[in-house]
Design brief:
22 strands, 10% helix, mainly beta, 9-stranded antiparallel β-sheet, Beta-galactosidase, Chain A, domain 5
Length: 360
């Protein structure tokens, strides 16, 4: 069953729109006027903005809100990336990802794009009963570029992860350049361990040693020292919240994953006995793993893995390094990620799988 969404469905007060067993979907509007859906099951819920970027704004599973901390409390009606940067998941691309330049905005044109079509699917498949929220974003610049970007986020009954599917369709006969980054923003959990299928060496972990000139000299020195420590021993970052940490304002890494026999890479922020923040992504479609960690008094984010087609340094850098991907005339590409919180029992199984991958 598919329900096409209209903006008049959304009021200032939360209202039940759909229910199927333990799965429920509620509509509401933030005080900023942004329409939102709260999709819940017996394990938790997520809040998605169906008409603004198809962003996941809140993500609450495992008994906690898992999204990063920033100064932005509610989504805002703006195309400026950092002016509404307080959510859990952002789709980034298609013309560029990462740093802005004179022709491309920060993280591209799609993070805050307005969707002309949004919908809810409800059904059953081999995994069970689900609710899925998706949308259609159409971009058309005559003589230049035409594409459709079609994301969907699916939640199953009894599960605490969301299955995110992305499809990009080229609407012209000419090849389409594209870049994509899935910006997933977990909250750091002090005492957790980062467990991931990346060998801990300089071949597989690159530290981007970028130190802002605006920092005081003492803060610059502390950040440089910590970056040099991580460059020598990337495994040092695996214990979250150790006293030597220095992620102010941020550190970015490029991670090269070793996949399993299904071509998947795995990442966890694992609290033994409680469970783990979890991402499972396709390393063929998204071969670059960006890690972004920021820990200050006002921002606190564990971007433990941002699966991407390229590094985060903008279009020109992607072009120079050969990261740009192409879709032939009227071709499309699809891929999927699993994102969320998993039980301690499943986290132990995933850790065994990661250990086997790293020693294969």
């Amino acid at each position: 069953m598919r329900l096409h969404l209209k903006k008049e469905f959304f009021k200032d007060r939360e209202q039940l729109l759909l229910q199927e067993g333990c799965l429920s979907v509620y509509t509401f509007r933030y005080s900023t006027g942004i329409e939102a859906l709260r999709v819940e099951n017996d394990c938790g819920y997520f809040v998605i903005l169906p008409f603004q970027g198809q962003q996941i704004w809140d993500f609450c599973f495992g008994g906690r809100n898992l999204k990063m901390k920033t100064t932005i409390r509610e989504p805002r009606k703006t195309k400026v990336y950092l002016e509404t940067y307080g959510g859990f998941l952002y789709h980034c691309g298609i013309g560029s990802i990462g740093a802005p330049d004179e022709s491309h905005p920060h993280h591209g044109e799609i993070p805050n794009a307005e969707y002309e079509e949004a919908y809810i699917d409800c059904g059953n498949d081999a995994r069970g009963t689900y609710v899925s929220v998706g949308g259609v974003l159409s971009y058309d610049a005559a003589f230049v570029k035409k594409y459709r970007f079609l994301p969907a986020c699916r939640l199953y009954a009894g599960e605490s992860t969301v299955h995110v599917n992305v499809t990009i369709e080229n609407g012209r006969a000419e090849p389409l350049e594209y870049l994509y980054l899935c910006h997933i923003n977990f909250h750091p959990i002090n005492g957790a361990r980062l467990v991931y299928s990346v060998p801990r060496d300089s071949k597989h972990v690159k530290v981007h040693k970028i130190v802002p000139d605006s920092l005081p000299e003492a803060a610059q020195a502390k950040l440089r020292d910590y970056m040099e420590l991580l460059e020598k021993d990337p495994a040092f970052m695996d214990n979250v919240g150790n006293p030597e940490e220095a992620y102010a304002p941020e550190i970015c890494f490029t991670m090269t994953y070793k996949p399993d026999d299904k071509g998947r890479g795995y990442t966890m922020q694992y609290v033994e006995g409680e469970g783990a923040c979890y991402v499972d992504h396709p390393t063929d479609a998204l071969p670059i793993g960006i890690r972004w960690i920021s820990r200050t008094a006002t921002e606190d984010s564990m971007g433990m893995i941002l699966p991407a087609t390229a590094e985060h340094l903008g279009y020109k850098d992607s072009k120079a390094k050969g990261y740009i991907r192409y879709l032939g005339g009227f071709e499309k590409v699809s891929f999927d990620l699993e994102i969320g919180y998993i039980s301690d029992a499943r986290a132990k199984q995933v850790e065994e799988k990661i250990d086997a991958i790293l020693h294969s």
